[in-house]
């Protein structure tokens, strides 16, 4: 597996992975599929992007992680191909993200995770993020209340 910075040409594969996760539901607050152009603008080289990395093997993107500005803070998002989580992909992505975040001068990373996303909560705790706020009323577009946990990592 190779972890490298995301390139504009990765946007199609990254959006495909994200959209599969959205379709399954339960582990992302995203509810509307994103086009490759949206992924590129939001996560690769748009004005609010800080860093974006992909994990690839045999030319296939297995996961990706991005840091971007949202509501005045640097927020991280991690997406790994369904069915292959908990195999070290997230840790490998984070190792590169951490280097890039520090190079960019960031002092804190934020993660907002659905309260019902047990694997996501475990992942961010494992890499050092700590709770700093909750939003128990966070609801999906259909009105289902799932809550949200806000975590941060001081760099």
TrEMBL record:
Pfam entry (one): Acetyltransf_1
Gene Ontology molecular function, alphabetical: acyltransferase activity, transferring groups other than amino-acyl groups
Keywords annotated in UniProt: Acyltransferase, Transferase
Keyword Transferase tagged: yes
InterPro entries reported in the protein's UniProt record: Acyl_CoA_acyltransferase, Bact_Acetyltransf, GNAT_dom
Calcium as UniProt keyword: no
Domain N-acetyltransferase: 1-155
UniProt name for this protein: GNAT family N-acetyltransferase
């Amino acid at each position: 597996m190779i972890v490298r910075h995301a390139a504009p040409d990765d946007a199609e594969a990254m959006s495909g992975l994200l959209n599969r996760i959205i379709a399954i539901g339960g582990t992302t607050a995203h509810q509307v599929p994103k086009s490759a152009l949206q992924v590129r603008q939001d996560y690769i080289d748009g004005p609010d992007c800080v860093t974006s990395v992909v994990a690839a093997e045999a030319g296939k993107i297995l996961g990706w992680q991005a840091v971007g500005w949202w509501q005045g803070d640097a927020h991280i998002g991690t997406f790994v191909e369904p069915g292959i989580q908990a195999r070290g992909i997230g840790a490998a992505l984070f190792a590169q993200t951490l280097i890039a975040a520090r190079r960019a001068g960031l002092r804190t990373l934020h993660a907002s995770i659905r309260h019902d996303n047990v694997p996501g909560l475990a992942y961010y705790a494992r890499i050092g993020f700590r709770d700093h706020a909750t939003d128990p009323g966070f609801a999906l577009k259909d009105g289902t209340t799932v809550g949200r946990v806000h975590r941060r990592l001081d760099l």
